[in-house]
Amino acid sequence: MGAIASFCIMTTSNTPPQEPNIPDEVAAAPAVDKLAETEARLAEMSDAYLRAKAEVENIRRRSEEEMAKARKFAVESFAESMLPVMDSMEAAIALPDAKVETVLEGVHATKRQLASALERNKVVEINPAAGTKFDPHHHQAISVVPAEQEPNTVVMVLQKGYSIAERVLRPALVTVTAPK
């Protein structure tokens, strides 16, 4: 047993293994190169981040300016198309001694101009024909009357409605048939 004990003592020695004798500059060179490379990448990525952040801020500012302009001038086209209607009305007022027939003719011409201007700006008339199925999205029932027609159908339009780009500005005011 003495031989085994002396073998264990020899193999469990606490002395660190000997490293090869490498100069400090050679051992530190890969770490320094790696650090310099990492710092260069960090500087590059930091610059790219700052540029991207500035670009996003510029895009945000430009889009806010464009939205403000769009809101400010949204009705410009519509107002421009209304000017001939205003001109016609002023011309009619300028002739106080005009005959009724002439004034009526002018009113019809002005109405056509107005209808054309509304159409150019996608304002569409909602004027359901009698017998049309009542649509609560486009019609507003003012009264209900008994009739021979199918229930909930339009009997008469009291006031036309209007929509713009498929959105109801004002529903048509209608009379509808009563349920049986």
Overview of this protein structure:
By secondary structure, the chain is α+β, with helices and mostly antiparallel strands. It has a domain at 124-180: Nucleotide Exchange Factor Grpe, Chain A, domain 2. The chain is built from 4 helices and 6 strands. The chain has helices at residues 2-11, 24-72, 76-93, 100-120, and strands at residues 123-126, 139-145, 154-159, 161-164, 167-170, 172-177. The strands form 2 sheets. It has a 3-stranded antiparallel β-sheet. A 3-stranded mixed β-sheet has the order 2-6-3, with no helix packed on it. Strand 4 (161-164) and strand 5 form a beta hairpin. Helix 3 (76-93) runs antiparallel to helix 4. The protein is elongated. The N and C termini lie far apart (116 Å).
* CATH topology grouping of one domain: Nucleotide Exchange Factor Grpe, Chain A, domain 2
SSE arrangement, N to C: HHHHEEEEEE
CATH superfamily of one domain: Head domain of nucleotide exchange factor GrpE
Distance between the termini: 116 Å
What is the top-level CATH class of one domain? Mainly Beta
The overall pLDDT average reads 87
Strand content: 15-25%
Structural class: alpha+beta
Number of strands: 6
Low-confidence stretches: 5-9
For the biggest sheet, the summary is:
3 strands, antiparallel
Taking strands numbered 1, 2, ... along the chain, how are they ordered across the largest sheet? 1-4-5
Number of helices: 4
Overall shape: elongated
**Helical content band:** 40-55%
Under the CATH scheme, the architecture of one domain is Roll
Radius of gyration: 43 Å
